[in-house]
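INFO batch 0412 | record 1 of 1 | parsing
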Amino acid sequence: MSHPSTSSAPVEFKRELRLFDSTMIVVGSMIGSGIFIVSADIARTVGSPGYLLLVWVITGIVTIVGALSYGELAGMMPHAGGQYVYLREAYSPLVGFLYGWTFFLVIQTGTIAAVGIAFAKFTAVLFPALGEGATAFSLLGLRVSNAQLVAIGSIALLTLVNARGLHGGKIIQNFFTVVKTAALLALIVLGIALGSNAGAIEANLSRFWEASWTHVSGSSVGAIVPLSGLGLLAALGVAMVGSLFSSDAWHSITSTASEVVNPRKNIPLSLALGATTVTVLYVAANVAYLMTLPLSGSPEASDVMGRGIQFASAERVGTAAASTIFGTPALVLMAGLIMVSTFGCNNGLILAGARVTYAMARDGLFFRKVGILNSHAVPGRGLVLQAIWASALCLSGTYGDLLDYVVFAVLVFYILTVAGVFILRKERPDADRPYRAFGYPVLPALYVAAAAAICVDLLVYKPDYTWPSVLILLLGVPAYALWRKFSTTATTL
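INFO prediction complete | emitting tokens
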């Protein structure tokens, strides 16, 4: 792996990403394993087919509006670092740092670790010896499983490819995104055309809008609480956590703005095309699930129909739906699909993530040498550092908890970024804006209101997840002060 040097490093990134490549980064970074899994938890939380679909529709609308709003900022500031740059310019270097701090510590690296482990888990379906139950070795009391090694190996491989230049990362992204998008589309079409089950459809239609929250205690149902009024709104907000994160990372392309051809046009367009494409696929996938499986089920049932969407084995709703079409081979087919999906997803996350720390380093807010491009015109040290920390999270086994803890912070940064459109319209009215946010000011304002409502919902109903998120943000304030104070001596790497 090439390391940067001040004498030979190129001064500028290479512009190699065209509209198709940019759209593939958006789509590929969004589609991981979530769409095949999280509908089970959503179904338990809202308890009705109609509200299951509504959660995904609202998520899609929120995502598209957010993407369209980011498009204005991307066209206005087409620089490496994306959201970090927007927050820095709209507010202050401190706010930008708080985002970058949380992004590196947990958001991006935690997601990379989680997606890497998901890749390893489904690899183990095909090769059981590589599963989490198999111990590779123990070191100082730490048990390291074969699955953790597979996850780390996949992260290292993708880091190596991306450290050797944008072209290799782009090829991997395009190939895996096209394959997994086609496979997901095939699953949808086949599920609707061949997997439709009259009994499941009748059961779902009979209670299409009968909302309830199924609380699980251990491996059995604890209570089923009917929902209406404010309780229903609260449940919808809680349920959206899974769908929002399955639809996240759409803004990854903004971090690579310095490498996009005609970024002022192609980044806003790729955001709109990518977010819309994934939203349509996600809603259609859930329609297919509801046509093949009943939403309600029991954890004690022995077959996919009895377990329903709510209690699909190991939450694998996609696999349960596919089994109604392909039978037993569905387990292998879906494992292969999710391996392709997660591998391509991590490539996009790894590629984009290092550009944020690069921008921070250029501002003196991260290790100085992370802000230097290597001989292949990419931030090589940033890629390596990102891989090391993501691998450490894989070994810690806490990445899943960390991601839960930063849900609140991620939403706060989305709110601040979209609100930044209003701020910069006022403070820089004459700035060049080749694209203006669609539906401004109504749609961006609705986005801020909707995201804020979800934040309040999480504060009330999931405090265990929100307060750690606030703590991580607050710890960033003294970290910023210390970094600024000692930046001349403590930021080399």
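INFO post-check: Residues 1-7 have pLDDT under 50 and may be disordered.
INFO record closed
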